[in-house]
Amino acid sequence: DHVEARGPSYQWNLDDFEIGAPLGRGKFGRVYLARERTTHYMVALKTLYKVELMKGRVEKQMNRYMKLFRHPHILQMLTYFHDHKRIYLVLEFAARGELYKELKRQPNERFNEHLSAKYTYQVADALEYCHRNNVIHRDIKPENLLLTYEGNVKLADFGWSVHAPSSKRNTLCGTLDYLPPEMVTGQTYDIYVDHWCLGILCYEFLVGKPPFLSDSQQETYVKIKTINIQWPEQITPGAKDLISRLIKRKSSERISMAAVKKHFWIVKYKDLH
Ligand SMILES: CC(C)NC(=O)[C@H]1CCC[C@H]1Nc1nc(Nc2ccc(C(=O)N(C)C3CCN(C)CC3)cc2)ncc1C(F)(F)F
To answer: Looking at this predicted complex, what is its ipTM?
Structure first.
């Protein structure tokens, strides 16, 4: 709202901000802590080099993202602007940083049932909103989640999101661990890919690593297609029930985000401290 104080037609530029410490590197460029000069509002300033993003698609993606996404568990893009070299995204600053680092910092590198249920609930809430707007995130994993000062989740990085349904085969870099069978076999897929990923995410919160982690991609493919999951003892019957209802081969059998939010294990643990 501070940023919108200048009115929707104001052309923001770099001089409106004092640039602070680097927060790290995103996929396409660096991210800095920044402060808006007049209101002292803290933001994250993500710089993207134009050369990678010349395609007009980015502009469309930005506009779709900006207009649509106002949700407590989705990282908000406040505005964006560009100079001759770069595009600058002015994003919400999440003070407690990257959730995957928080996961690694935990004893045994895993979250207890309260944090796992709380974060799973908040991601389900964000996904329900995305799906209501016919957007598939497609890249749900700890690396794409940030934490606010209060310890709540912000879903970020809609770089891979597309309108449902889609059969867009993108060169998915990085881990296959989160891929559902329909994406592994290149079939068309729908919003239910995010339901599968939520199941994988909940498992990783509780165990500290995803269920199909293997030494080779080939082995991971086989485990995904056969849905070969081990259930270590820290996964209680309630958590196993929820995860099993999300990691279903038939996408239509995966329970809805509304059902996740009402699931007895989520309800029991999400507000405990
Ligand atoms: C989801 C997406 C895939 N991820 C990203 O974009 C990443 C790429 C780089 C940073 C992050 N992007 C953001 N990060 C924050 N907050 C933040 C991050 C890191 C720390 C932190 O732990 N340090 C600075 C520590 C402090 C201590 N030293 C030792 C290490 C770094 C603290 C707060 N807010 C908004 C964003 C956003 F998204 F708006 F850009």
So the answer is: 0.97
Tell how far the Cα of 176 is from the centroid of ligand 1, in angstroms. Answer: 23
Instruction: State pLDDT tens for residues 17-47.
Output: 999 999 998 777 899 999 999 999 999 999 9
Going by the DSSP 8-state scheme, the letter that residue 76 receives in this structure is P
- Which protein residue has the closest C-alpha to ligand 1 atom 5? 26
| E runs forming strands in the chain | 17-25, 30-36, 42-49, 77-82, 86-92, 135-136, 145-147, 153-155, 162-163
Catalytic residues: 139
pTM as predicted: 0.92
Contacts of 146 (CB under 8 A, 6+ apart): 75, 94, 96, 97, 98, 99, 153, 154, 156
Nearest atom in ligand 1 to 22's CA: 24
